[in-house]
Structures are given as structure tokens and as C-alpha cells.
Write a structure and sequence with these properties.
The structure is a homodimer.
Chain A (H helix, E strand, L loop, with lengths): L5 E4 L2 E2 L2 E3 L3 H5 L2 E9 L2 E2 L2 H14 L6 H21 L4 E9 L16 E8 L2 H13 L1 E10 L14 H8 L8 E6 L4 E4 L3 E6 L2 E5 L9 H14 L3 E4 L3 H5 L3 E6 L3 E10 L2 E4 L4 H10 L10 H5 L16
Helix pairs in contact in A: 6-8
């Protein structure tokens, strides 16, 4: 049975927010979904940088001190809870909206941003199922829903997520565990909640996320750090269904569920199959327990005196 | 000064909703923005049909009786208020979301839809400004933000409205009163909160809304009824900037603010100008006080015994 959630709105324990918030009205905001174990957020710095990137691209300003206080309150509540349930792991969803709204699309800039944290423990069923998927791989399908080109929103996790809702819904009547999303040019972009990687001749290939799609933090970890650790090259490129079909190995990445090898997918009416290969196993062992440097940890951030100074990232939207 | 709003959530007077609602999490829902005067909603039937179309295309199911009760409660509160302020006109925003959410994009179908009504009186400044715009026309600009092709969402008013927020924001530093949105093929689709019409040789032209854009209810009124009343032809077609430049008259339609003639727009660095012509004046006199048939009124709907039977509409997304 699922334990009740912790919900914090603007540093306060409360479960609701005004019906007039622009996050609801227009999906006017961004979010992060972060794994919390032992009171610590995995890959915090990457989540934080993507959040800041999203806020900047949507021109949403947040007060650094209010944000710091909100994160402090949120993580403190989660830590107290996890200390009482030491085995518990959970997901902290952080939503930042442009704040309470007046009439009309145009932002007024008078209202402070709304900060929302929703923590839910991962249920036991998640771990059993996820372990199975990591070990034995998953079957996927090609979604009918297509991703639209939108350079304003490409890469970030905005609250405009209907394409992913509609794409995920297609799976309700299928045996597949994930769905691949293409753009209107038939390029493969990502899965509904995961990024895609192909292995071909020991080179990693992953779709460009410059026109649409979400640039996952686990994807960034692989590109920025893990590939180098493994001594392999990563190419961010257009990926066609033909490249998918001819890949040696295929896997999906997500910061909560880790690396899922892909074992089959119906492509052009052919049931394409892949083995869970050595490459996927190596990626898993590198990714599943990776921790960023101490100075990129949540603890370091929480004790920072300049919490929101934008850190120039060479990798941009990754 | 703006009077306080009326807010009703699931037939109850309350101002907030759970932070876990899917409307906030993913923009997973639709909305309508409807003018209310004398306790009656203008063009109710068109709003209602577009709402149903949106719900159907997002696979959101609502309980007909719950919806009827919610609309009854909402309009009753607004009527009581407008009886006390007989000159007051306002806007009723109706939001329907897929309901409270579990973890993940995939809808669970266990939660009932959330129904939200937000009524705000139109301030005096609105009427003065709007009267001026109807009489003297408006200046517009071409937005940098582009509309993405999404056949799943084209035409409906979903809660995924970030492109309109970003496009409207461009106007903050401009003298223009509206902005035109193009798609990635450089076709003109609409204004940020209005549909576009061109007059050329006494024929009306308006952009196709089959790939992106919102099919406004005032647009539908013009296409379905007003054009025939005026004895003119309407063509829904791809509209290029060249067609815009060479139009005899240009105007924008919106169900709350009516018909705004367009008097100038910077197109390809040329300050294009149009006069407010006879055609625009005739359209205004037809549209501004139009009422649908009694059997398409809100009162007729509220007394209906089968409130949600989908009525087959020949005009589809219009």
C-alpha cells in the first residue's frame, strides 16, 4: 500500500494551491522528478541545472532565498521521514510555476513563482518490477503520437506534457513496457519517460534533443561522464528507424528507474529483437550507483550562499 | 478596482485544488473562456461543443450529471452576483482536468475529472480599451515564437498553452496590441488569443486550423452563420504573409473582445497598413450582439436530460 505523500507549497506543509495558478491555467512552469534515497537526491546538480535552464527559457524568475528555503523545508521533511523508514526510497517531484495568474496569457511579473514539492515513496512493487526490467529488458512499441518541433521547449521539462500523456495512454492496450516517440520527420527522439541509446560497433548513439524531447539527467550523465569512463564515443545525431533496427544493443535511460535494455520492438511490422549485451551491463554498473562530486550534491547546494548564480554549463541542454 | 472572483471546484465554493492534480502536473485538460452578461453565457453551445471535442480527443471522461451540477452551481453563483450588479459583465473560465494524479504520465482512469470554474468581472478599463480597439483597430506584430504541428491538439483549447504565453510575452516591449503566430512553414495561423481573417475581393479567408492553433468560437460563428447572413464566401486555407500584405481588410476575432480590425503590422520590415473598411464594420454589427438559437442556449442545456450526448457537428473543429 502506498504511504501518504509529503506535499510542500512555498515552504509550507499544505496539499493544495490556488485554482488560479498559471501552472494549471497554461502549464506555465517546469518540473523535475528526482529519486531520493538516504535523504539525498540523486544527480541533484543535473536536475537543478535543467530546472534553471527551463526557468530561464520560459523567463520565469524565482527568488533565490525563497527557493533555497523551499528546498530546505522539502528535503528536511523527506529526511525525517526516511530516517523513520531507513529502507524507503522515493521520488521528489519539484514543480515551479510562474505563480498566481491574472486574466490572459501575458505574464504580469507581479506574482512570485509558486514552488511545489510532492514526495511519494516508491512502492515495493516498483522495485520488483524495475529489477526485472533492468535484468531481462523490456519490450517497446512505436507510438502513434508524434513529437512536435518547438525550439522554445526542446530539452526542458515544462508542464506542457500532453504529448507524453497521450503517447503513454497508447500502451494501456499493449504488452509493451515503453513507447518510442518519433517526430514528424520519422526520426526517433526518445521514449515517453526515458531517453534512447543505441550501440553500434561499440559507439553510443542517442537522438539529438534540439527540436523536441526532454534531455534527461541520466542521458547527460552518460554523455558527460560515463561514456568517457568506459572509453567509448557518444554521437548525438538524427536516429532513424533503420538505425534502430540495425543496432547491436538498445537501451533506455531514466534517473529513477535506471537503465532498461530493450529486447524487442515492432518496427515496420517486423518484430525486431535485441539481446541484453555486455555494453548494456557495463552501462548499468556505471550508472546505477553513480554519485556526482560532493560540490555538486544537494548538501553542498543547501549550504551555498549564492544558490542561484547560473553556472555556465558547456553541455547546454544535456 | 477588480472585484474578487468566484471560484467553484467540483460544484463546491473553494479556491484551491490538490497540488497533485494532473491539470497542473501535465497540463492534462482543456478549458473555455466564456463571456457572461445578464447571467447568460454568450455562444454557450459552441464553447460546449469545443470542450467536448477536446475531452474526447484527450480521452478524458466526465460524468454528465456531475458536469451538469457543476455548471448549474457555477452559473447560479454568477447570476446571483450579476443580479446585484446588473451592469456587470465578466468572464467565466471553465477548466476540466483528468483529475488527481498518481505517479507517471499514463492515465489511471480511476480518478474523476476535476471541474473548475473561475469567474472574474471585466474591469471598466477593459470596456474603454476594447471599444477603442473595435473602433480604431489595432497594430499587430509577427511573433518570433512559432506554433508546432500537433494533430492531436490542433483546434482544441488544451491546458498546454506555453507557446501562447511565450508569444504574448514578446509584446511586453512593443507597442503592438496583438501578435501573429506562424507555423514552421511560415504560414500564418492565428493571433495569440484571436483568430485571423483577411478580406480580399469580398471573399473571407481564414487559416486552416488542422495542424495547430485554436479554433475559436467566434471564428466558428463567422464561418457557420455570419458569412452566409452577409452573403459572402469563406475560404479556410493556408495563409501566407504575402496574402496578408495584399489583403483589402484584416481583422481578428475573439468571443470576449469581439472583432478588432487590424490597421498595421510590420511584415518583412515594411510597415503594412490597412484601413478599417466597410467589411469589418458589417462583420462587427453581425457578430457583436449575435445570439445562438434558444435550443443552443445555456438555459436549454441546463434543463436538458441528456446533457452530454455528443451532438454530431458537421463543422468539426470549427
Amino acid at each position: 500500500m502506498t504511504e501518504p505523500s509529503i506535499i510542500i507549497v512555498n515552504s509550507q506543509q499544505q496539499t493544495s494551491l490556488p485554482a488560479t495558478d498559471r501552472g494549471l491555467a497554461y502549464g506555465d512552469g517546469v518540473f523535475e522528478t528526482m529519486k531520493v534515497a538516504g535523504g539525498d537526491i540523486s544527480l541533484w546538480h543535473y536536475h537543478y541545472e535543467r530546472l534553471l535552464d527551463g526557468l530561464q527559457r520560459l523567463f520565469i524568475e524565482i527568488d533565490p532565498q525563497a527557493f533555497l528555503q523551499h528546498m530546505n523545508t522539502s528535503i528536511e521533511s523527506v529526511r525525517q521521514r526516511q530516517q523513520m523508514h531507513p529502507q524507503e526510497q522515493g521520488v521528489l517531484k519539484l514543480i515551479v510555476t510562474r505563480g498566481d495568474g491574472q486574466r490572459g496569457y501575458m505574464p504580469t511579473q507581479f506574482e512570485p513563482a509558486t514552488l511545489i514539492s510532492i514526495y511519494k515513496p516508491l512502492p515495493d512493487t516498483f522495485f520488483n518490477e524495475n529489477e526485472d526490467r533492468q535484468q531481462n529488458g523490456v519490450g517497446i512499441h512505436i507510438c502513434k503520437e508524434r513529437l512536435a518541433v518547438s525550439s522554445s521547449l526542446a530539452g526542458i521539462k515544462s508542464l506542457n506534457q500532453l504529448p507524453y500523456v497521450l503517447a503513454s495512454r497508447e500502451r494501456q492496450t499493449l504488452a509493451a513496457q515503453e513507447g518510442l516517440l518519433l517526430n514528424n520527420d520519422n526520426h526517433v527522439i526518445e521514449a515517453t519517460a526515458r531517453n534512447l541509446f543505441l550501440v553500434k560497433n561499440n559507439v553510443l548513439h542517442t537522438p539529438l534533443i534540439d527540436q523536441c524531447g526532454v534531455a534527461g539527467v541520466m542521458r547527460r550523465l552518460i554523455i558527460d561522464i560515463v561514456a568517457a569512463q568506459m572509453g567509448v564515443m557518444v554521437k548525438e545525431a538524427h536516429i532513424t528507424l533503420s538505425m534502430l533496427k540495425h543496432a547491436d544493443e538498445v537501451f533506455l535511460s531514466n534517473s529513477v528507474s535506471g537503465i532498461w535494455p530493450v529486447v524487442n520492438c515492432l518496427v515496420d511490422d517486423v518484430d525486431q529483437q535485441w539481446l541484453v549485451g555486455k555494453f548494456s551491463r557495463r552501462i548499468q554498473s556505471h550508472c546505477h550507483h553513480f554519485r556526482l562530486d560532493e560540490n555538486q550534491s544537494l548538501t553542498s547546494y543547501l549550504s551555498s550562499s549564492t544558490p542561484l548564480s547560473p553556472s555556465p554549463t558547456s553541455s547546454g541542454k544535456n
